[in-house]
């Protein structure tokens, strides 16, 4: 018997729109098409709205919705992007990357339209950026805050900022956004990354335990990666090993981890069978829109990539028979 298609949703990362001339990344090696990014988002939304297979029920926005170069017109730039997202007929679940914090404070973001804690099907954590969402009885999504401990998100006089400074002690560069001299996965100890608190990791563990009990398939989303090989080492969370360990301890329900941050994109399957997918950055493609559309069947999850995004099939941990 043919497996039934029961749900569809979209994913997109690193739009980084700005109303400025094209430029380059921090290293000066890759061009960024700031205005074009908005047109590419428009293409993605048009594709989702006109999907004749099954229109996506929601979209996952994986962080860096606008570029840090927008100051002091950050809100205007954000409203331009949200105006495009408003054309999508369904919820958009947002997470925050480093560029959100280049533009806004955590306090602003928690009161902004890109705080998804109050959205449909969402269970928020009070005063936190991370949240849980159940868009379908057989699917649980955990949205992480990869900058909970960071120089970007934390007040300078806070204990979390001091903890972030300790993570960065290994980086001897004058500019701590530079990973020169940091070998292997130590390249992650740069200022444009961050870490999850022990409290957030415990929250992940609790949610994955509940998902196992309820036989729910789980997708975790975070701006930074947690699995070496799926993303450039300079784009990993500072405490990626601890986060990966808790995900792998619940491999019976974990289907995939979705990230952005590395504009090349990437993919790797860890040794517990969890797929780690990094979506390419919209801002670095002037010819095609980089995004993905997921199709959830009773026995599998198919990802169809557009532009540079990956296309692959993932096995669901629990069969779904509810439409």
Low-confidence stretches: none
Q: Examine the secondary-structure arrangement and name the CATH architecture.
A: 4-Layer Sandwich
Shape assignment: globular
Name of the CATH homologous superfamily? Metallo-dependent phosphatases
Distance between the termini: 16 Å
Organism: Dreissena polymorpha (Zebra mussel)
Domain Calcineurin-like phosphoesterase: 9-263
Protein name: Calcineurin-like phosphoesterase domain-containing protein
GO molecular function: 2',3'-cyclic-nucleotide 2'-phosphodiesterase activity; ADP-ribose diphosphatase activity; CDP-glycerol diphosphatase activity; manganese ion binding
Topology overview:
Layout: E1 5-12, E2 23-24, E3 31-32, H1 36-49, E4 58-61, H2 74-85, E5 92-94, H3 98-103, H4 106-110, E6 122-124, E7 131-136, E8 139-143, H5 159-167, H6 198-214, E9 217-221, H7 240-248, E10 254-259, E11 266-269, E12 275-278, E13 291-297, E14 300-306, E15 312-315
Parallel strand pairs: 1-4, 4-5, 8-9, 9-10, 10-12
Antiparallel strand pairs: 1-13, 2-3, 6-7, 7-8, 11-12, 13-14, 14-15
Helix pairs in contact: 1-2, 6-7
Pfam family, one: Metallophos
GO molecular function: 2',3'-cyclic-nucleotide 2'-phosphodiesterase activity; ADP-ribose diphosphatase activity; CDP-glycerol diphosphatase activity; manganese ion binding
Protein name: Calcineurin-like phosphoesterase domain-containing protein
Protein architecture, described:
- The chain has 323 residues and is of the alpha/beta class.
- The protein has one domain: Purple Acid Phosphatase, chain A, domain 2, CATH 3.60.21.10.
- Helices cover 22% and strands 22% of the residues.
- It has seven helices and 15 strands.
- A hairpin with a 6-residue loop joins strand 6 and strand 7.
- Helix 1 runs parallel beside helix 2 and helix 6 packs parallel to helix 7.
């Amino acid at each position: 018997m043919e497996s039934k298609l029961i749900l569809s949703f979209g994913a997109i990362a690193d739009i980084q729109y700005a109303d400025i001339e094209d430029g380059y990344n921090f290293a000066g090696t890759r061009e960024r098409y700031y205005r074009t990014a908005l047109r590419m988002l428009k293409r993605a939304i048009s594709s989702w709205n006109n999907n004749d297979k099954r229109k996506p029920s929601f979209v996952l926005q994986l962080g860096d919705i606008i570029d840090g170069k927008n100051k002091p017109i950050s809100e205007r730039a954000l409203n331009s992007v949200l105006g495009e997202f408003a054309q999508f007929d369904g919820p958009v679940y947002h997470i925050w990357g480093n560029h959100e914090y280049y533009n806004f404070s955590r306090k602003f973001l928690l009161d902004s339209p890109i705080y998804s804690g109050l959205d449909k099907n969402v269970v928020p954590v009070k005063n936190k950026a991370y949240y849980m969402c159940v868009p379908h009885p057989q699917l649980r999504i955990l949205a992480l805050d990869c900058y909970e401990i960071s120089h970007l998100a934390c007040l300078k006089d806070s204990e979390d900022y001091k903890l972030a400074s300790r993570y960065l002690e290994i980086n001897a560069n004058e500019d701590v956004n530079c990973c020169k001299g940091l070998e292997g996965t130590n390249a992650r100890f740069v200022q444009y990354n961050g870490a999850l608190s022990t409290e957030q990791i415990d929250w992940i563990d609790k949610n994955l335990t509940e998902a196992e009990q309820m036989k729910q398939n789980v997708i975790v989303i975070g701006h930074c990666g947690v699995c070496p090989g799926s993303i450039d080492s300079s784009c990993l969370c500072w405490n990626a090993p601890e986060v990966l360990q808790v995900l792998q301890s619940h491999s019976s329900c974990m289907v995939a981890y979705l990230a952005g941050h590395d504009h090349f994109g990437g993919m790797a399957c860890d040794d517990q069978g969890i797929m780690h997918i990094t979506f390419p950055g919209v801002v670095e493609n002037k010819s095609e829109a980089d995004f993905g559309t997921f199709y959830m069947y009773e026995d599998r999850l198919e990802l169809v990539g557009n532009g540079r995004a990956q296309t692959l099939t993932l096995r669901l941990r629990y069969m779904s028979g509810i439409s």
